[in-house]
Amino acid sequence: MRLLLTIILLLSFKLIIAQNDTIGVTISFKDAQVTDVLNEIETLTEYRFYYVKDWLGTTPVSGNYQNAGIQDVLQDIFNGTVINYYILKDKKIALNRNNIIYDELPPGFFGHLEKTEEVEDQENTIANNAIFVDKDDVSERNEVETVRIGKAHISTRNRFTLTGYVQNKKSGEPIANLSIVAKNSKIGTVTDASGFYTIELPSGLNVLETSSLGIESMRKNVIIYNDGRLDFLLNESVERLEEVVVRADIAKNVEEVAMGTTEISSEETKNVPVVLGERNILKIATTLPGISSVGEGATGFNVRGGNADQNLVIMDNAVIYNPTHFFGIFQAINPFTAEDLKIYKGSIPAEYGGRLSSVFEITNKDGNTDKFAGEASVGPVTNNVALEIPLVKEKSALIVGGRSSYSDWILRSLDEESLKNSQASFYDAILKYNHKINDNNEIRATGYYSRDAFSITSDSLYNYSNRLFSLRWSHKFNDQNSADLILANSQYKFNIDFDGETNTDFGFGYKVNETHLKYRMRYLLNEKHKFDYGISSKLYAVNPGDIDPEGNESIIEPQSIPKERALETALFFSDTYEFSERLLLDLGFRYSAYFALGASVQRVYEDGLPKEEGTLVESVEYDNNEIIKTYTGPEVRVSGRYFLGKDFSIKGSFNSTYQYIHTLSNNTTVSPIDTWKLSDLNIEPQRANQFSLGLYKNFDDHNFELSLEGYYKRSKNNLDFKVAAELLLNETIETEVLQGEGKAYGVEFLLKKNRGKFNGWLGYTYSRSFIKLDSEFAEELVNDGAYFPSNFDKPHDLSLVANYKFTKRFSLSTNFVYQTGRPVTYPIGNYTFRGADYAFYSDRNKFRIPNYYRLDLSFNVEGNHKLEKLAHSFWNISIYNVLGRNNPYSVFFITESGEIEAYKSSIFSIPIPTITYNFKF
Fold first, then answer.
1. What's the rounded Cα separation, in Å, for the pair 288 and 798?
2. Is cis: bond before 596, omega within 30 of 0?
3. What is the per-residue DSSP string for 27-46?
4. How far is residue 751's CA from residue 171's CA, in Å, rounded to a whole number?
5. Helix (H, G, I), strand (E, B) or coil at 844
6. Cα dihedral: 608, 609, 612, 613 (round 10)
7. How many secondary structure helices (H) and strands (E) does the chain include?
8. How many CB atoms within 10 Å of residue 281?
9. This model's pTM is above 0.85
10. Contacts of 307 (CB under 8 A, 6+ apart)
11. CATH code that applies to domain 144-249
12. Which CATH number fits domain 3-126: 3.55.50.30, 3.30.1360.180, 3.90.226.10, 3.30.450.70?
């Protein structure tokens, strides 16, 4: 604290400020360099400037002055820069970068001085701008880089906002979930998925430290005078694993305002045992509270009592309609290119809409911009490879991934004749390009395609595919404003090729396509308010189905259902408002508008009567792009967090949502040949309101996370179907569907251990999901108009995922699942018709199939951890369904040879051993 004081005191005694300078300056310049302007002033006046030329930069300046004061001229020239000035005697002017030169010390600096109101004001003015360093800290701080943000100025503010991006120095990839802490003030923040951070710091000197798994820690001295930006380029860590302390995101579950959100890293899934050894981030999601599936072989997910079509699944901002392969057994997401999955089931951000229950946001990694890298695996049924290819060093890269199965080859190799004629195969491919144009502009583009083909009989071949493309341009206007412009297109289609022994061969095709444009803005107003806002628009195009005869002898008549089109547009806005240190609010609003478009023929039915052929009044024809029907509505997204104590918070949220597109399926579970139907004149959009409340507590220095959440949800216009409804190739689909009310409620418990040799989580959910189909007409009445359990109502759902590390290379993992059996409709009697027995069924979903439980085990072996290796290996030896539990997938009844027969189907009813080899280079 003495060296700096000595310099200031010497200046105070020897120099005199020319405060009352009366020399006028007359000068004019346009787009001139600052050095040239200063030289011109020296020529025209007696002033002389002293400075370091590199400080002044190359930004041109302009001005026109007539007999102006020198301070006015300099103020304009250096406005918006980090240059301050000090006028000495004899017309000498010293330029200084960032700092202000003070010619007096704060009152009471050398001892105690009784404060008056005037003294307090002077002290605050100087203390907020002058930086004094204790001599004991000089040696330590000299070893750390010092960065100055802004320039010193007279201000009443004592806190400023620092923002920036954190990237991997070698690859250029953003570093997410990195902790940044101001050591002296104990203020911290965490980077988001794009590596962006914002932190509020007290004015003056701050010592910032970074921390993250696999990333070298860094310390910087940051002297902050104003709001500004500081980016970090960090190296990968080469420390031994046990010496790395993971602190990033350590208290996020307690501190963040959002509730009902979950993040899963793709890398974290490699130790969890799954069927046939294929990593599956979506299956891991079902082990968390509030997320389940109907059973093995189901392609959809049920979130908080919602139907499977009520989940928005997006990958790099583009919708993926069917994210699974082979009836949900495998995921359609490449685990080597996927970075993480974020699930919103409670506090859904205002920017997302179009679904009632949840958002599954999948983000793929950026390619390594520094060096070539890759990862691959070989399993009993599938293989997988991903390559990262740098294109322009530290600027752009490409990541390429591909997966495929060789189950067809396995089936053809079997002796069983029926299996030889079967087919079951899939593949997917992904390509992502990332390019950093400059510090303010980045672009990312993703292309993806997947295809499945299977034949469960010798005469029918089913195939379905996903295709998507997305482009995102990220632009930073300044330290407070940034934006993303997103363009995406998605397509899902399936085909059925029938080649039987009769002359009824045919080909059937279905397709849904959507194009999405979104402009999203972020504005950091101050430390209290952070705004997100924008506009989003989607254009839907649905081809409900075409059937054509196959071969010259087929008697099938060609048929094509008219196409459907619609436009969905929304405005959204949210404000993350820090009301106080304890209370944090997120106030979101979304207003969506939906327009069903022609060309189309819509049928009008008589009011107050069932929609059927006998109540048809007229058919109305609409021209191309003519609006058939408009639906609009506000969607409120509000959540709040309040600290009850350290590491203990309570959160609440309310979400209202609209859904304008529906699945048509009269199967118990979602299948690859389910179709999507747009809202129109006769089918209204679904609506839902959800209330949530939760408690969150961390223990043992955040090693244990505990959460308890409850929710209650009401919905309208839920889509269901009449008994024996015909959905494919039906032009009057509105006569086969029913729309009713729904309600769901539940309590979710999660206990998670983050660190140590033993880690994992225990999740339990008690939930109920009901639907009501009430009408004054018997043909539209189900279960007498009372609420009855939905197909996916499972009151009890328990999951245990655990991992124990014996050493750094060897670990054992286990996964246990227990679920209440789902509802089913059983026959409660029989009747005879024309000499045959037929079943008489109970009320819908009155009974349940047996409860489901399963235990999986895996043993994981990592290769040695030498740094200089061609590739790092990882072996996974797992057993799926260790107990050999014959869990029923469905129970159904049919009449054969005049008698009622009951059947039970199950998948993987015996233990399934698997060994998979992975290597990374």
1. 9
2. no
3. EEEEEE-HHHHHHHHHHHSS
4. 36
5. coil
6. -100
7. 9, 57
8. 23
9. no
10. 300, 357, 663, 718, 790, 792
11. 2.60.40.1120
12. 3.55.50.30
**Count of CA atoms in the C-beta half-sphere (13 A) of 853:** 7
Identity of residue 132: F
Q: Say if residues 544 and 510 touch (Cβ distance below 8 Å).
A: yes
The CA distance from 302 to 845, in Å, is: 17
Q: Which helix (H) or strand (E) holds 742?
A: strand 737-753
Q: What is the 8-class DSSP label of residue 286?
A: T
- Give CA–CA dist 56/565, Å, rounded: 59
Asked if residues 916 and 875 have their Cβ atoms less than 8 Å apart, the reply is: yes
Give the burial class of 918: count Cβ atoms within 10 A of its Cβ; 0-12 exposed, 13-18 middle, 19 or more buried.
buried
Q: How many Å apart are CA 277 and CA 555, to the nearest integer? A: 46
In the numeric block, the tokens 């009445």 are attached to 781
As a three-state string, the secondary structure of 644-681 is EECCEEEEEEEEEEEECEEEECCCCCCCCCCEEEECCC
Report mean pLDDT in 10-residue bins for the chain, 921 residues.
41 39 76 86 84 80 85 81 79 78 60 44 43 48 71 68 86 84 80 85 85 82 83 71 44 85 81 76 89 77 90 94 83 89 92 94 91 87 90 92 79 59 83 93 96 75 91 92 96 86 84 96 90 96 90 85 95 94 94 95 90 90 95 96 92 96 69 82 95 93 91 93 76 88 96 88 95 86 90 93 88 92 83 73 86 90 68 83 84 71 76 85 78
In DSSP notation, 427-450 reads EEEEEEEEEEEETTEEEEEEEEEE
Q: How far apart are CA 538 and CA 523, in angstroms?
A: 24
**Quick one: pLDDT at residue 869?**
63
- Can you point out the beta strands (E) in 393-440? 396-405, 423-438
What CATH number matches the domain at 261-630+637-920, 3.90.1150.10, 3.30.9.10, 3.50.50.60, 2.40.170.20? 2.40.170.20
In angstroms, the CA 697 to CA 644 distance is 10
Using DSSP's 3-state secondary structure scheme, residue 387 falls into strand
Count of CA atoms in the C-beta half-sphere (13 A) of 863: 14
Lookup: tokens for 82: 């980090």
Q: How far is CA 104 from the centre of its chain?
A: 54
Distance from C-alpha of 251 to C-alpha of 246, rounded to nearest angstrom: 12
Domain boundaries, the chain: 3-126, 144-249, 261-630+637-920
DSSP 612: S
Q: Where are the alpha helices (DSSP H) in 211-361?
A: 252-255, 281-285
Centroid of chain to Cα 331: 17
